């Protein structure tokens, strides 16, 4: 084509070049690309519905907008919304274009230079509430799917406000120097990693604000709406991330009953997290007693000279429902000897220097409500108290009762600790006739049970389009009501799954078996759903029959399996050997967590002295975001490779050879029971 313009008509697309778009004769080309040669970052429910085409010549800039019409598979379900054209220059980083629907099965975009193009569709985004057994699904024809657009508003130097349901963005005058399009996109919680601690929960939509990379000349205020029906006494804070996995807490102010606000100088991804209220105290050398503002029966007493410098300490109290203990005993007779528990108390040292550790020179006394008084339970017969501790960064609860208990009254229990962690006191029966005492594994399961919630899964298929498959994870108490509600909205559903228990933020892998499989690109990636009790947990999927992929009208039948990540099962006949393994495993995790906090940037030197080969070290460095996670990954890899030869003696010798004797000394002070792994 020359300056007069023209049209290139092909099966997958039509390219219309207006007059003056090119200044000399130019050969316009259209090449169909193998989907295996590009990376499409499809989210849940999105699917490729066209050929991927590359327009040439590559790098050409047009002086007038060129129209590209693309053909796509329009066999979508009734009620499907838009399809959208994606473009890329490098086959990996894609951008969505403003797309116009043409007649039938075509969409059109205007561009000013050549790209690689694809048409992508996505399931309509519905809003629902927030878990495992097999259920049957069927599949017949292959549909296409739709996408939602972000909220947006253009603003200039005078500023302005973008109001949406999940948030309000206030841009003051002078924050931008030219017209800028401010965008707000709700992110699927399954597409991010939230490192929630016990007691924390997601209570808002996760939103991505744009444009990325823009630095504002004045602070921009972001107000976020959240679900304020979380536990009483909770605190809400805004977290921010650049990479969807590493989060930072922002200084947050309350703005009404269900809104919080933060000031930022650039845009990222934001979420509101609820957590138990945290009290912070400064402990002087002369001693101090801390009292929780939410549970006054909880006190932490530092004797004089327990610390040799003023120390900041935080205290959180996680309340435990009496009903949770009753549900536990009703669920499994192994726990019948549990009478009641105290709340969980989480105590931490706040240090400005992450590499230094505050040493207690005298034991610190922790006071908690007596379990029987706390839960107002009447029990006749002998009992005993068990003190349990869980190190930060692990899920392993260990009994630390020993002779730590110093005073017991009808209302409180006092015990001593030499370092801080999460703590709980459990009251158990002490019957002489009890032939199955509550051992370490069952005690650990009690602690984990109290921090989990009962959930069930609902499987859904759209009436008239059985390929549209949806999974919802919901709290057990509302599952039947939720299922009937969805069936009234055009879905059909088998009975819900059985009840299981999940932690907040726990991921569940969804596997489809039989002669049914996820369609297209979805078949190449793991399907996961993340449980958040205060949010709607939903996974969209397109499925197809496997009898003959070329004949999409054939029916397929299969079933769904749900796998909690991670999941540990303990069989009763293996209890004795598992107790030994549990003690061993808990110690290993404590050692490794302590070491990675102290070694950090010296992890490669330690890896060399542990005998890890250079390729393994390079692989660990590349797949982890920071030195502490690299160190932990390296230690786990060393233990896996060496097996029984991975002993604490070998590890301490390697630390010494790497010039990290201070870490060895810290281990000996912190862990008096150091022995074989």
Automatic annotation (TrEMBL):
Pfam families: Death (PF00531), ZU5 (PF00791)
Segments of this protein annotated with the region Disordered: 131-167
Annotated ranges, domain Death: 588-671
Gene3D superfamilies given in the database record: 2.60.220.30, Death Domain, Fas (1.10.533.10)
Gene Ontology BP, a term: signal transduction
InterPro entries hit by this protein: DEATH-like_dom_sf, Death_dom, FADD, ZU5_dom
Residue ranges constituting the ZU5 domain according to the UniProt record: 1-123, 149-276
Polar residues composition-biased segments: 131-151
PANTHER family documented for this protein: C-TERMINAL OF ROC (COR) DOMAIN-CONTAINING PROTEIN (PTHR15077:SF9), FAS-ASSOCIATING DEATH DOMAIN-CONTAINING PROTEIN FADD (PTHR15077)
Record protein name field: Ankyrin-3-like
Lineage: Eukaryota, Metazoa, Chordata, Cephalochordata, Leptocardii
Name of the gene encoding the protein in the UniProt record: LOC109485372
């Amino acid at each position: 084509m020359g300056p007069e313009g023209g049209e290139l008509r092909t099966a997958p697309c039509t390219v219309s070049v207006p007059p003056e778009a090119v200044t000399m004769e130019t050969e316009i080309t259209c090449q169909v690309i193998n989907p295996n040669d590009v990376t499409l970052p499809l989210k849940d429910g999105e699917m490729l519905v066209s050929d991927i085409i590359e327009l040439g010549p590559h790098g050409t800039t047009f002086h007038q907008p060129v129209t590209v019409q693309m053909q796509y598979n329009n066999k979508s379900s009734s009620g499907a919304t838009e399809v959208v054209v994606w473009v890329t220059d490098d086959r990996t980083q894609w951008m969505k274009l403003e797309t116009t629907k043409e007649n039938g099965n075509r969409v059109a975009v205007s561009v000013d230079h050549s790209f690689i193009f694809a048409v992508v569709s996505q399931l309509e985004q519905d809003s629902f509430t927030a878990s495992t057994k097999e259920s049957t699904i069927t599949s017949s024809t292959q549909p296409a799917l739709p996408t939602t657009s972000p909220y947006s508003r253009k603003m200039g130097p005078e500023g302005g406000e973008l109001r949406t349901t999940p948030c309000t963005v206030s841009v003051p005058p002078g924050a931008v120097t030219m017209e800028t399009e401010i965008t707000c996109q709700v992110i699927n919680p399954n597409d991010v990693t939230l490192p929630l601690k016990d007691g924390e929960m997601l209570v808002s939509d996760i939103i991505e604000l744009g444009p990325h990379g823009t630095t504002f000349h004045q602070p921009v205020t972001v107000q976020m709406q959240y679900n304020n029906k979380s536990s009483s006494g909770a605190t809400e804070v805004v977290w921010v991330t650049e990479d969807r996995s590493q989060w930072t807490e922002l200084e947050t102010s309350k703005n009404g009953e269900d809104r919080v606000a933060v000031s930022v100088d650039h845009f990222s991804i934001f979420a509101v997290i609820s957590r138990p209220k945290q009290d912070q105290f400064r402990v002087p050398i002369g001693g101090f007693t801390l009292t929780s503002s939410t549970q006054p029966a909880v006190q932490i007493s530092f004797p004089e000279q327990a610390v040799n410098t003023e120390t900041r300490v935080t205290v959180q109290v996680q309340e435990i429902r009496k009903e949770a203990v009753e549900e536990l005993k009703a669920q499994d007779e192994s726990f019948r000897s549990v009478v009641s528990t105290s709340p969980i108390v989480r105590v931490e040292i706040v240090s400005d220097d992450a590499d230094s550790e505050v040493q207690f020179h005298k034991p610190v006394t922790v006071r908690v409500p007596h379990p029987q008084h706390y839960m107002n339970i009447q029990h006749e017969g002998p009992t005993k108290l068990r003190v349990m501790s869980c190190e930060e960064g692990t899920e392993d609860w260990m009994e630390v009762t020993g002779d730590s208990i110093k005073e017991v009254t009808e209302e409180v229990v006092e015990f001593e600790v030499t370092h801080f962690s999460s703590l709980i006191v459990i009251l158990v029966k002490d019957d002489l006739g009890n032939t199955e005492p509550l051992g370490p594994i069952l005690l650990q399961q009690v602690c984990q049970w109290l921090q989990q919630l009962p959930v069930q899964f609902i499987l859904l298929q759209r009436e008239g389009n059985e390929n549209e498959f949806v999974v919802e994870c919901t709290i057990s108490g509302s599952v039947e009501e939720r299922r009937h509600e969805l069936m009234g909205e055009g879905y059909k559903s088998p009975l819900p799954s059985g009840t299981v228990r999940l932690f907040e933020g726990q991921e569940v892998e969804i596997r489809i078996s039989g002669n049914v499989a996820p369609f297209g690109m979805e078949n190449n990636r793991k399907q996961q759903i993340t449980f958040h009790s205060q949010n709607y947990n939903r996974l969209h999927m397109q499925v197809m029959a496997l009898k003959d992929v070329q004949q999409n009208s054939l029916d397929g039948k299969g079933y769904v399996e749900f796998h909690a990540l991670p999941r540990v099962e303990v069989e009763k006949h293996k209890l004795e050997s598992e107790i030994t393994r549990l003690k061993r495993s808990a110690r290993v995790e404590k050692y490794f967590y302590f070491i990675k906090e102290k070694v950090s940037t010296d992890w490669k030197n330690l890896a060399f002295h542990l005998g890890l080969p250079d390729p393994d070290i390079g692989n660990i460095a590349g797949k982890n975001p920071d030195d502490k996670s690299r160190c932990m990954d390296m230690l786990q890899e060393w233990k896996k490779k060496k097996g029984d030869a991975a002993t604490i003696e070998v590890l301490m010798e390697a630390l010494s050879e790497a010039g990290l004797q201070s870490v060895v000394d810290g281990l000996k002070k912190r862990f008096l029971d150091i022995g074989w792994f």
